[in-house]
Amino acid sequence: MISVIIPSYNRRDCVLALLSDVFAQQDVDIEVIVVDDCSPDDSAEAIRDRFPQVILLENAKNGGPAVSRNRGIRHAKGEIIVGLDSDVTLPDKYLLSKVQQRFVEEPSVCGLAFRLLMPNGVAEDVLRWWHPVPVEEYADKRFLTSYFSGTAYAFRKASVVDAGMYPEVLYMHYEEVELAYRILDAGGSILHCPDLVALHHANEVSRRSEVSVFYKPRNQVLLAVSCLPGFRAVHYLVPRLCYQFAKACSGGHLKDFFRAMQSAKDLLPDLISSRKPLRRETLARIGKLKHGLAP
Questions:
Q1: Which letter does DSSP use for residue 128 in this model?
Q2: What DSSP assignment string belongs to 72-85?
Q3: How far apart are CA 207 and CA 224, in angstroms?
Q4: What percent of the chain clears pLDDT 90, i.e. is strictly above it?
Q5: DSSP secondary structure string, 32-45?
Q6: Phi-psi category of residue 205: left, alpha or beta, with phi > 0 → left and psi -120 to 50 → alpha
Q7: Distance CA 86, CA 19 (A)
Q8: Whether 133 contacts 292, CB under 8 Å
């Protein structure tokens, strides 16, 4: 069975459209779990009314996507997890069936990264292409990767649990990056599958600007400290923080940049005590994936 997990925040119409697509899927056994992250709209009530078969979990307080996804994963009964953000739709009624078959065909693969297209079904969602190879060359190819987007993906549940699940300290942004690293560090692999398509409608939440000016620079620090050995952490952070500082200066967000750095500083003691740098072999493997290795 596949457990479809949908974190949702303040996107009533979007999540209802996605649920219609999910329940139209053919030739597959599914359970559907929606985790509502304290939406101020009537998302929860609408889901209960329109889709009573949904397992609806409601967070007591807003915790962010990482918390919501983890809660859904813990509750899931399926051996396969398909995660979908609430602002996507599924044009293929056999998508989930294909996911199930792909895991049968690729027994060594732990996760599948979906292809994300814009609503027209043609243009690539380039803003969410963080794979280590260029989108214009690899969007329509199968290749092993060190990244997946939380917008649409599939994993064997055991692989995610063994890797420690999403890092909740990040709240949002870069949580998929760290989880992907942990899965690779445990010996797993992630396959980009161009035939597994989701349309991303990019219905941005009200905190999207805060992602850019606060969560991105803060979480770059936290990711580096958590995952990278000393010199590599410095090599990773220096150019990124210089860029974020310059961007904050030119955009009038300097106060937000320093707020992000203070937040990272406050979180560092606990993070350092539990940090687990990636193995040397994993770092070398991530480097090799920049060459677009085929499965």
A1: G
A2: HHHH--SSEEEEE-
A3: 24
A4: 94
A5: EEEEE---SSSHHH
A6: beta
A7: 9
A8: yes
pLDDT band (50, 70, 90) for residue 165? very high
Write down how long the chain is: 295
153-to-39, 63, 113, 257, 270 alpha-carbon distances in Å:
23, 21, 5, 31, 30
Helices (H) and strands (E) in the chain, counts: 12, 9
One-letter amino acid at 102 equals R
Helices 230-251 and 216-227 pack at an angle, to 10 degrees, of 180
Q: Are 41 and 119 in contact (CB under 8 A)?
A: no
What is this structure's pTM? Answer: 0.95
Tell me, what's the pLDDT at 207? Answer: 47
Report pLDDT for 208.
57
Q: Which two tokens stand for residue 262?
A: 């203070």
Place of tokens 């609503």: 119
Condensed to tens digits (0 to 9), the pLDDT of residues 75-114 reads 999 999 999 999 999 999 999 999 999 999 999 999 999 9
